[in-house]
Amino acid sequence: MDLLKNDSAAGPETVTRRSLFSILPARTAGCLACAHAALCGQDARLQMGLSWTENSDMTWEQVFRFAYQKDLIPLLKELAAQMGREKFVAAIRKASDDVVARKTAGRPPQVAGLTALAAALSNPPPLMQHALDAEILERSPQAFVYRVKRCLWANVFRDEDAGDIGYAMVCYPDYAVARGLNPKLRLIRSRTLMQGDGDCVLRYELES
């Protein structure tokens, strides 16, 4: 049974932010030499004045690679090189714990038990449906277990040789999120795609 579906349809080529910036200086210089520079600027705005709420025609994989691969991961790797890789990864882990703890401080349990958790994870939002390809392995009063077979986060970070950073930023917070949902909720994870394993297996149990 599929818990989360992965959309692998190929999309059209898109103009990246970097390629756009490489075009703009030449276009701007041309307009400055034009006697009607103000009018040229208006034409450019008309051509680019599309709504931010319109569909970008990007695949989910293209969205992830644009969001993480172009700028963020190179920046994180540079910070890791300057601080020391182990120290940097440890700092991200601690920060992720602190952020989740601060967001959930004082809240009542968001899930009363495994049944509510299973219902929520079985009907995830669209982002999770497209980012993960997963299946439920166990749904019982004792545990809720699911297996992730493919993960866009893992693909993107590992392609950039940044699986350790990706684990600290994307995967490690799952433990704090579980505690935030219910202090008695315990996550047991034996392996992850981000760390180079063949899949992720997440087991949730409720302590008595």
Structure overview:
The chain has helices at residues 17-32, 37-48, 60-69, 72-83, 85-104, 114-122, 126-131, 152-159, 163-171, 173-181, and strands at 2-4, 132-139, 144-151, 185-191, 200-206. The protein has 208 residues and is of the alpha+beta class. It has a domain at 69-206: Muramoyl-pentapeptide Carboxypeptidase, domain 2, CATH 3.30.1380. It has a 5-stranded antiparallel beta sheet. The longest helix is centred in the middle third of the chain and has 20 residues, at 85-104.
Q: Order of strands in the sheet with the most strands?
A: 1-2-3-5-4
Spans of at least 5 consecutive residues with low confidence: 4-39
Number of extended strands: 5
Just give the CATH class of one domain: Alpha Beta
Report strand %.
15-25%
Helix content: 40-55%
- Give the overall shape: globular
The H-and-E topology, N to C, reads as EHHHHHHHEEHHHEE
Determine the mean pLDDT: 81
Largest sheet: 5 strands, antiparallel
- Reported CATH architecture of one domain: 2-Layer Sandwich
Distance from first to last alpha carbon: 29 Å
CATH topology of one domain: Muramoyl-pentapeptide Carboxypeptidase, domain 2
> How many DSSP H or I helices?
10
User: In terms of structural class, how would the helical and strand content be classed?
Assistant: alpha+beta
Radius of gyration: 22 Å
